[in-house]
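Kindly inspect this chain:
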Amino acid sequence: MPTAPRRSDATRAAILEAARERFAADGYERATIRAIARDAGIDPSMVMRYFKNKEGLFAAASAFDLQLPELGALPSRDIGALLVTHFLDRWERDEVLTALLRVGVTNTAGAERMRTIFEEQLGPITAGVCPDPAEAPARAALVASQILGMALTRYVLRLPPAATMSRGEVVAWLGPTVQRYLTARTP
């Protein structure tokens, strides 16, 4: 018989959910431990007990798995379109990544968190498909520039027509660029 979740697990989950929502709504600087605790329905001391400080809470609340697809069996010519499609799915399905982007453009800790996520998760995929693994960091940075730029204009700033393009149009425009960054010979 499965064990019931412990009360501390439920409290921690409630704090993290409230923190994600508060950081998304207010940004890192304006979000407060008191407001997050209020949103979670707990005493602020509990937030401090679990996460020590605002920085620790942000680090935990911003833990994010990009859930990048396995590319092994995929023809290399399809990787760019697949990654753009994947990122559109991630941005549209989970507000945490959008919240991280908002915080990342205004706060040093948020920017560092985004850098870490993309380096640790996109870097190995890039190294696995690019012609020269020594170029993987530069190529991953170029891919991230396209993905993050699209996300900023489409989901945060909501600039037309980027915000109103169909998914197919976004993939058609960005897929070949991401593909080139990943697999083309060095210019």
Q: What stands out?
A: Residues 7-30 form the longest helix (24 residues). DSSP finds nine helices and no strands in the chain. The chain has two domains: 7-61, 76-183. The radius of gyration is 19 Å.
